[in-house]
Design goal:
Number of helices of chain A: 4
Number of strands of chain A: 0
Shape of chain A: flat
Number of domains of chain B: 3
Number of domains of chain A: 2
Number of strands of chain B: 0
Chains: A mainly alpha, B mainly alpha, C mainly alpha
Oligomer: heterotrimer
Radius of gyration of chain A: 26 Å
Distance between the termini of chain A: 47 Å
Order of helices and strands of chain B: HHHHHHH
Largest sheet of chain A: none
Shape of chain B: globular
CATH superfamily of the largest domain in chain B: NADH-ubiquinone/plastoquinone oxidoreductase chain 6, subunit NuoJ
Helix content of chain A: 55-70%
CATH architecture of the largest domain in chain B: Up-down Bundle
Largest sheet of chain B: none
Order of helices and strands of chain A: HHHH
Mean pLDDT of chain B: 79
Structural class of chain B: mainly alpha
CATH class of the largest domain in chain B: Mainly Alpha
C-alpha cells in the first residue's frame, strides 16, 4: 500500500510538471495578431465545410463493447491466474490444481464461444 | 494525517460527482466522472483493498469511460454549441431536498447503529491482498466458485446482446437501401 | 501509514537511499521518495530527447542519409534546439475548440507515462514504487493515454483530428486486450503481479528468462507482445491514426508548440515503456545474461543491472524503429481482423496452454 503513497505524489507532481510546462509555454511564447484565418481549423488549407463533430458508424460501438467484455474477463481471471502457481506448488490448502484448471478452462471456453458466435455472425468484419 | 486526506478526497469526490451530473456539456461531465473514479480508487487504496482500486482504474477509467466517450462521439455532433438543457431552479431545490433527506436518513441510521457498524469500520482492518481474493474466488467451501462461472455466462450474454444489436442495425440498413 | 513498516517494503535501497536513511531516519521515506521522483521526472525528459534523436538517426541510416548533423557533434544537441524552439512557439487554438478539454488533453498522456515510469524496476533497488498489482496498474494507467487522445481529437473542432482520435481509440482498446492476456500469461507463470518480483522470478541463467522457458510458448508470446505493443503505440505499420497521406497528423493536427510536444514526448517515452515492460516480462529485466560458463559469467556480473536493463530496452526500441522501415501500413479492416480474428483467439489459447504446461510441470 505504501507504494501508492509515492504513486499519488508522482501523479500530483507529474501533473503539476506537465501543466506548468504548458502554462510556461503559454506565457513566454511569441504571439502574432489574431485573425480569422489563424483560428480556422486546419483541414489541408481548405475552409471547413459543416461542423467538425461528425457522426461515426456503429462498428466503433461494437468493438468498444467487445473490448469492455474482454476487459472484465481479464480482471476476473487476474486473481485466479495469480494464485495458480501457488496452487500448483501445493502451497494453498483446500484447492487442488485440477479444480482451478477446470475453472479457468470453463471460463475461457465460455468466452471463446462468445467470440466464435460474434465471428460467425460477421460483426468482427470492419466494413 | 489519513483522516485529513480522507476528508479532502471526499470533498473533491462530492464536488466532482456534482459536476458530473450538473455540467451542461456532456463531455465535461465525462471528464468530471473520470476524476471522481480516480478519487474513488484512491479511497479504496486508503481502505487497503488494492484489487478493487486497480479494478476501478482499469475498468472504469480505462474501460467504461472510454466506452462512454466513444458513445458520446458516436451520437450526432453533440458539441459545444448544442448543450444540454438547463435544469430549472425549482427542480434543483426539489432534488436537493430529496438528496438531503436521504443523506440525513443515512446519517441517522449509521449513528443509531454505531455500536456495530462504525466501530467495525474504524478499527484498522488488515489489507486485503489479491491472493486472498483469488483464494476466496476459487475455494469450494465458503467460496464464490459458482458465481465466478456465472460471471462468464453473464459476459457471454452481454456479448450476444451486443452482436444482436449490431446485426439488427445492419439488416435495417439493407431494408432501407 | 506506519513508518516502520514502510521502510522494509520500500525498494530504494541504494547508496543514496541508505545515506538519506542514516542522516534523516525520521523522514527518510518522504525524502527518498522525493529524490526518486525528481530522478524519474529528469529521466523521462532526457529519455524523450534521446529517443527523438535516436529515431531520427536510425531512420536516416535506414535510408542511407546522415540525419541531423548541424547542431553539436553529429546533431547531438538537436533535441535541445527543438525543445527551445517548441517552448517559444505559440499555442494556437482553433475556432470552436473547447478550451478546457483542449488544454487538459495533452496533459493526460504524459502524466500517465510518469505514473508508469515510477514503477519500472531499473535495478535491484532502483525502483520508485512497487505495487503488488503492478501489472493491472500498468494496464489501467495506459487507459489514461487513450482518454487523452480521444479528448484531444474531440476538442480540436477538426474532422481530421476526430477521425484520427476515433481510429486510434478503437485500435488501442482492441490491442490492449491482447496485451492484457499476454501479461496474464506472465503473471500465471511467475505467480506474482509485482514487476520487481516478475524480474526476480527469472533469476539464474539466460534459459530461465520467460522468453526461452516454455517450449516455444515464451518466444511466441514475446513476438505477440511486440506486435500488440507496436499497435498500442500507434507506430508503423499500425499508424493509421496519423496516416500522413489521409489524416495529416491525426488527433494532434491542431496542436502546436508545447501542446504538440506533450503528445510527441508521451509517444516516445511510451515506446521506451513498452520496451522496458517487454524486458521485464520476457528478457530477465536487470539480470545479466549468464550462460553457465565459469570464466564468462563473473565478467557479465560485474556490469551493473541498470546497464543491462537499458541495453535490453534500447535493443527492443531499435526493433520498433526497424519495424517502421520494414513493413508497409495496414488497412483498418486488416488491423481489426488481425486483432480480433488472430491475436485474441491465439492469446486465449496461449493462456490455456500455459496452464497445461504449469500442471504438467514444464514451466520450471
Amino acid at each position: 500500500m505504501d507504494s501508492y503513497i509515492l504513486i499519488g505524489i508522482t501523479a500530483f507532481i507529474g501533473s503539476i510538471f506537465v501543466g506548468g510546462t504548458i502554462g510556461l509555454a503559454k506565457l513566454i511564447a511569441f504571439r502574432t495578431p489574431n485573425s480569422a484565418l489563424k483560428a480556422q481549423p486546419f483541414e489541408c488549407s481548405e475552409p471547413p465545410i459543416g461542423g467538425a463533430r461528425i457522426r461515426f458508424k456503429v462498428a466503433y460501438y461494437i468493438f468498444a463493447l467487445l473490448f469492455l467484455i474482454f476487459d472484465i474477463e481479464t480482471l476476473f481471471l487476474f486473481p485466479c491466474v495469480k494464485i495458480f502457481r501457488a496452487v500448483v506448488d501445493g502451497e494453498i490448502a483446500g484447492i487442488t490444481h485440477q479444480l482451478v484448471f477446470l475453472e479457468l478452462s470453463v471460463f475461457i471456453c465460455v468466452l471463446f464461444t462468445g467470440l466464435i458466435y460474434a465471428w460467425r455472425k460477421g460483426v468482427l468484419v470492419w466494413e | 494525517m489519513s483522516d485529513i486526506l480522507f476528508y479532502i478526497l471526499a470533498t473533491v469526490l462530492v464536488i466532482l460527482s456534482g459536476c458530473a451530473v450538473s455540467l451542461p456539456n456532456i463531455l465535461h461531465s465525462a471528464i468530471a466522472l473520470i476524476g471522481s473514479f480516480i478519487i474513488t480508487a484512491a479511497l479504496y487504496i486508503m481502505l487497503q483493498i488494492e484489487l478493487l482500486a486497480l479494478a476501478q482504474i482499469m475498468l472504469y477509467v480505462g474501460g467504461i469511460v472510454v466506452f462512454m466517450l466513444l458513445i458520446i462521439l458516436l451520437t450526432t455532433g453533440l458539441g459545444v454549441d448544442d448543450k444540454l438543457g438547463r435544469i430549472s431552479t425549482w427542480k434543483w431545490i426539489s432534488k436537493g431536498m430529496i438528496t438531503g433527506l436521504l443523506f440525513t436518513g443515512m446519517l441517522y441510521f449509521f449513528t443509531e447503529n454505531s455500536s456495530s457498524l462504525l466501530d467495525q469500520a474504524s478499527a484498522k482492518a488488515a489489507p486485503i491482498t489479491i491472493d486472498q481474493i483469488g483464494i476466496r474466488l476459487l475455494s469450494t467451501e465458503n467460496g464464490f466458485i459458482v458465481p465466478f462461472e456465472v460471471v462468464s455466462l453473464l459476459l457471454l450474454a452481454a456479448l450476444v446482446g451486443a452482436v444482436v444489436i449490431a446485426r439488427k442495425d445492419a439488416e435495417k440498413k439493407e431494408e432501407q437501401s | 501509514m506506519n513508518m516502520s513498516a514502510t521502510e522494509t517494503l520500500y525498494p530504494l535501497h541504494n547508496g543514496i537511499g541508505n545515506m538519506v536513511r542514516a542522516l534523516f531516519p525520521e523522514s527518510a521515506f518522504f525524502i527518498n521518495g522525493l529524490l526518486g521522483l525528481i530522478a524519474v521526472v529528469i529521466l523521462t525528459s532526457t529519455l524523450a530527447a534521446v529517443l527523438i534523436l535516436l529515431e531520427r538517426k536510425v531512420s536516416a541510416h535506414f535510408q542511407v542519409r546522415l540525419g541531423p548533423m548541424r547542431v553539436g557533434f553529429h546533431g547531438i544537441l538537436q533535441p535541445l534546439a527543438d525543445g527551445i524552439k517548441l517552448i517559444f512557439k505559440e499555442i494556437l487554438k482553433p475556432k470552436g475548440a473547447d478550451s478546457f478539454t483542449f488544454y487538459l488533453a495533452p496533459m493526460l498522456p504524459l502524466t500517465a507515462t510518469f505514473l508508469i515510469m515510477a514503477i519500472l524496476p531499473f535495478d535491484h533497488h532502483l525502483q520508485l514504487a512497487d505495487p503488488a498489482g503492478g501489472v493491472l496498474y500498468v494496464l489501467g494507467i495506459s487507459g489514461l493515454a487513450v482518454l487523452g487522445l480521444l479528448l484531444a481529437g474531440w476538442s480540436s473542432n477538426n474532422k481530421l483530428s476526430l477521425l484520427g482520435a476515433m481510429r486510434a481509440g478503437a485500435q488501442m482498446i482492441s490491442f490492449e486486450i491482447s496485451l492484457a492476456l499476454i501479461m496474464l500469461l506472465i503473471v500465471m507463470l511467475s505467480g506474482t503481479a509485482s514487476l520487481r518480483e516478475i524480474v526476480l522470478s527469472q533469476q539464474g541463467l539466460i534459459f530461465d528468462w520467460w522468453i526461452f522457458k516454455l517450449p516455444f510458448l515464451g518466444i511466441i508470446s514475446f513476438i505477440m507482445y511486440l506486435i500488440a505493443s507496436t499497435a498500442e503505440l500507434n507506430r508503423t505499420p499500425f499508424d493509421l491514426a496519423e496516416g500522413e497521406s489521409e489524416l495529416t497528423a491525426g488527433y494532434h493536427t491542431e496542436y502546436s508548440g508545447m501542446g504538440f510536444a506533450m503528445f510527441f514526448f508521451a509517444e516516445f517515452v511510451n515506446m521506451f515503456i513498452s520496451a522496458a515492460l517487454a524486458t521485464t516480462f520476457f528478457l530477465g529485466g536487470f539480470h545479466a545474461p549468464l550462460i553457465g560458463i565459469d570464466f564468462i559469467d563473473p565478467i557479465l556480473n560485474i556490469i551493473p543491472g541498470f546497464i543491462w536493463f537499458f541495453g535490453k530496452t534500447f535493443f527492443i526500441v531499435f526493433i520498433y524503429m526497424w519495424f517502421r522501415w520494414t513493413f508497409p501500413r495496414l488497412r483498418i479492416d486488416q488491423l481489426m481482423s488481425l486483432e480480433w480474428k488472430m491475436m485474441l483467439p491465439t492469446n486465449l489459447l496461449l493462456l490455456m496452454m500455459g496452464a497445461v504446461f504449469m500442471v504438467l510441470g514444464w514451466a520450471g
